[in-house]
Amino acid sequence: MSPQKKISSFEFFLSKKVGKAITDYHMLDANDRILVGVSGGKDSLSLLDILSKRKRFVPVKHDLVAVLIDDGFVTRHLPKLKKYLKANNYEYYIERSDIKEKKKDFDCFWCSWNRRKALFKAAEKHNCNKIALGHNKDDVAQTFLMNIFFSSEISTMSPNQEMFKGKMHIIRPLAYVDDKDMARYAKLNKLPVCLIKCPNKTKNNRQLMKKIIKSVERVFPDAKTNIVKSARRIREEYL
User: Fold this and answer.
1) How far is residue 36's CA from residue 163's CA, in Å, rounded to a whole number?
2) What is the bridge-based pairing of β-strands 92-96 and 32-38?
3) Which residues, in sequence order, are CB contacts of 1 under 8 Å at separation 6+?
4) pTM of the model
5) pLDDT band at 76 (very low <50, low <70, confident <90, very high)
6) Where are the chain's structural domains?
7) Concatenated DSSP letters for 10-55?
8) Sorting pLDDT into bands at 50, 70 and 90, what band is 33?
9) Helix (H, G, I), strand (E, B) or coil at 69
10) Starting at the edge strand that comes first in sequence, how are the strands of the sheet with 32-38 ordered?
11) Residues 170, 129: contact at Cβ < 8 Å?
12) Are 159 and 25 in contact (CB under 8 A)?
C-alpha cells in the first residue's frame, strides 16, 4: 500500500461508522477473503480505500480482492482504474461481462442482476467467501421505499445477506454512511472516480425515491436514518 498519512477527523468519523456497521451485522470473520466490487464510482472506490485502511489495524485477519466487471460501460475507464489499483498494490482482477451488448433495451433490475451474477462467478473463481458492495445509507433507504411502492413488500438491501445456504455473503459496510459523505471522502482522497454514462441514470425509480426522501428531510432531517433503522425494528403484531 501507499505510505500511511495522518487521517482527518472526517475520515476517522467515517471509518467508525463503517466499523459499527461491520460489528452490528457481523460482516467480518477470521480468514475471510472479501471480493470488493469496484465499479469506478465514488462509493465502490471509497469502500475499497476505507476497508484497506482499516485492514492495517483491525485484529481480524482477512484479505481484500478488488474486482472490476467490464460491462461495456466502464471499458474506457479501465486504464485509469488499473493504474490506481496497481499503484496502491491492490490484488485486483478484471472480469468481462457482455451486459451492454447482450440487450439494448434494458432496465436497472436487469443490469443489476447480471452484474451480481458476474460477481458471484468472480468470487468463486478467486476463492472469495464474501462480496462487499458500495451501497450506502441512501441506497438502503431508497430501496426500502421502492419495494413498498412498486413491489408490495417490506424489504431492503440487507447489510449482511446470506447466499447459497451460507456459502457466500453479500456485505454492505457503508450501510450507515450518507451518500454526500461518500462524495466528500472520494474528493478528499483524490480517488479516480469515473463518470459512467448509464442511459437510465436520470429516469429510474431510484431517482424518484431520492427526491421523495429529500423532500421529507426538509421537514424531518432524520427521515432517512429512521427508514434504515426501521428494518431492524419490525413490530410483527402490527403487521
Assistant:
1) 16
2) unpaired
3) 52, 56, 88, 89
4) 0.89
5) confident
6) 9-232
7) HHHHHHHHHHHHHHHTT---TTEEEEEEE-SSHHHHHHHHHHHHHH
8) very high
9) strand
10) 92-96, 62-70, 32-38, 130-132, 168-171, 160-163
11) no
12) yes
- Assess whether pLDDT exceeds 70 at residue 110: no
Q: pLDDT tens-digit profile of 132-158?
A: 999 999 999 999 999 999 999 999 999
Cα dist from 173 to 5, 27, 114, 118, 176, whole Å: 23, 8, 22, 20, 8
Q: Which residue has the cell 466528500?
A: 184
Q: At residue 177, what is the residue type?
A: V
CA-CA distance, 36 to 90, in Å (whole number)? 11
Q: Measured between alpha carbons, how far is 13 from 184 in angstroms, rounded to an integer? A: 12
* Residues 6+ positions from 54 with CB-CB distance below 8 Å: 15, 18, 19
**Mapping DSSP to helix (H, G, I), strand (E, B) and coil, where does residue 94 land?**
strand
What cell does 140 get? 438502503
Amino acid at 132: A
32-38/168-171 β-pairing: unpaired
The Cα–Cα gap between 231 and 214 comes to 19
CATH topology of domain 9-232: Rossmann fold (3.40.50)
